[in-house]
Amino acid sequence: MYARLIAALLAVVGGFAVAGIALQRDEPINSLWIVTAAVCVYVLGYRFYAKWIETRVFVVDATRATPAERLNNGRDYLPTHRWVVFGHHFAAIAGAGPLVGPTLAMQFGYLPGTLWLLVGAVLGGCVQDMTILFMSTRRNGKSLGQMARDELGPIGGTAAVLGTLMIVVIIIAVLGLVIVNAMKHSPWATFTVFATIPIAIFVGYFMRHWRPGRVLEGSLLGLVLLILAVIGGGWINGHATLAPLFNWEGVPLAGFVIGYGWIAAILPVWLLLAPRDYISTFLKIAVVVLLAVAIIAIHPDIKMPALTQFAKDGTGPIFAGKIFPFVFITIACGALSGFHALVSSGTTPKLVANEKDIRLAGYGSMAIESFVGVMAVIAATLLDPGVYFAINTGAGVVGAAAADAVATISGWGFPVTVDQMQQLAKDMGESTLFARTGGAPSLAVGMASIFSSAFGKGLIALWYHFAIMFEAIFILTTVDAGTRVGRFMVQDALGQIWPSLGRTSWYPSVLLSSTLIVAGWGYFLYVGVIDPNGGINILWPLFGIANQMLAAIALTVACGILVKSGKLRYVWVTALPLAWIALVTTTAAVQKIFSPDAKLGFFAAANGLEAQLTAGTLAPERAAVAPTLIFNQRLDGWLTVLFLLIMWVVIFEMLRISFRHLAGKPVPPSSEAAYTATRLDASALPRSH
Amino acid sequence: MAGPGNSMRQFLSSGLSLLRGVTGDDAYDKYVAHMRANQPEERLMSAQEFFRAQMEQKWSCINGCC
Known about the structure:
The complex is a heterodimer of chains A (689) and B (66).
Chain A: H1 2-23, H2 31-58, H3 67-70, H4 82-93, H5 97-105, H6 110-138, H7 144-152, H8 154-183, H9 187-210, H10 215-237, H11 250-266, H12 273-298, H13 309-313, H14 323-331, H15 338-344, H16 358-381, H17 385-392, H18 395-398, H19 402-411, H20 418-428, H21 440-455, H22 460-497, H23 507-530, H24 536-564, H25 572-594, H26 602-615, H27 620-662
Chain B: H1 4-23, H2 27-38, H3 47-58
């Protein structure tokens, strides 16, 4: 009874908050409205929709033994307390994506991005993560690729694996670009990011030789050292002879990230990759909690309008295209992410002690991930809109000179002055904040103002670089872990042609496959860095399309399994988000391929630039990079074609299999593991030993 | 004794054990408990061996974030 009263109250409060956000137009609204609306929406979604899916659609069975119990080996298959599974799953899905995507999407105003973060998560992303987790748990923890192959046949399976490989390459490139843009000409940020490498190696040595397995001690040690590195970076920045040593252009920094990724992929994991991942998990949880506390404590006003003109006319300076479909493509991970399906069918299903725990880990973790996206929205929109656009717009759009940039941006109706930007850069300990594309610097400015208001002014430059370091830790973890994952996939593929190349520990194969993967993302990163428009405007939409394509594949696999297990009348639970995201991805891809607008269409941009190059109207420094940019735009166009094909191949395979099943014809059999009764009391599991 | 100090301590200790579980700090303890209960005759890996094996295994499959 009480539970119902509370739920009704939440519905009323949430309804008011959503209405408040949606209807308030003329004066700035307070971020507390957004936080309230978000929390109410998540709680209602979790309490009712997820509960309904759990009981009616999945029909979870608390008496059924999970793979963690049946295959318990004390190591990767291990029945685990539900809150630990939740924390583990959240740490595994959370990365830089939900921070960067929502920041960029604020060019449309705060409203569209915020609404999609809430609606997309509750009806799409959370459902996807929970469904894949449930299905993988029923199949002994099989991966998404294996499930696609088993349930939809070899064509669907191959397409799913190919899609995964492509998205790995694109995400490393785009996140590498984000971090290069944050380090460009910033000795403080560059020193801090460089310092994370010896720190990770030191912690790796500590955890391997001095205190084996003491993860918490190692992570805490790493955290303390990282904070010292941030402080040390401030000292370096003020030092006349040391500062220039860390003051670099974009291209050498990209070379550094590429070299780092290659070395990290071939080094033993304990030395660099694993300790960085441990520190990153720890930092992630700490900063998310800290940021939530700070936002609720200072609840800043939102200065960005609800909707900007770019939502309607599609001429946004950060990325081109109208609100439909590009707000959905840009937000990506905070609302619905194909990447999460890889985690939901990876380590997490091997930890779930009871099917009743799936809702918390799958649905609950994604709701928190979406909330991280909401916090990024607040951090981006508490800035003056003029400042937000000045930081996030490339020099190629608004002009390289500060006076040109402020004139253009003020002309859009978002006043900003050169003095204001210089003062802000000085406060943050940076030489300039103009054209620092990629989302990381503007997010760091927002986070720094939140943290410094909540925990003491005067330290704002430290907080700014702490935020940059925090993003860098995430991103470099993705760079090295992603390169390694990509390496395994390439080795697997090469092994089909020449078996000895498929041996994951054979050194020539390790070198060859690592080089191939690094060359793949390194190329996109390099082109992004030399692009005068900042590169993000091209790469982020490409990443968004790839990520939403992977989400569509995951939802397709889920639909196929639901139909085959006789749940046709509930298939809309995954079919509706699938239909929506397939529509969004297809529209975005078609616009990116066919649009005659050079800002939007890849081929149009290539042709336009080629015409300018032939006519000789380009400035010499732009003409020098033009052939590379032209080739890259065409390559991106063809990649988009490929993404679209992969997505529709998998969808058609699913439809074909589903209709065959409904017509009573033979289809690949269900790969669900047989029922075994549980002998485990999941509620009695300790949180730790 | 049930006092405010006691419940605070309880809160902190459950928070700590949650953190240990999430970060994997207690993985070796869990492994030892599992082996003692299920395969007491088999040789136990040392903490160092276990930690190395865990790491190799964790990083030889797909696990990514975005």
